[in-house]
# Entry
Amino acid sequence: MLSDEIIFHPVKYKVLFGSKADSNLQAQFKIVKNPQSSITDTEIKTRTVEAINSYFDDANWDFGDTFYFTELSAYIHTELTPHIATVLIVPKGTNQNFGSLFEIECDSDEVFISDAKVENVEIIDAITASKIRATGTIITSA
# Structure
């Protein structure tokens, strides 16, 4: 005699970056535009959000995966070359500093989903401690 058993585990989405995310997972993307680029800031913001949404497509993630910002950054650079020079992620939480969102883990029943919107992308002219909410000393030359 044979029998089958199906166990259903509903998915939980771990929302990142936008207003629907938990406050400790909300972020602002800071982009330094390539000075030689001829596209508008609005187009860069729109393309950035499109790249983020493409990166977080369901087909790219499994339950329990870990998000690494360096991988997302590389993907955004690939999609927006040669229009951007740098992309950074800055947490919105007042108790968080630069770097606190570089690695995010999810539980074994969770999958990441992005809620990033154009208003979560900011074009900046240079990286400064105040713009990226860094603590300590930033070294700008060797």
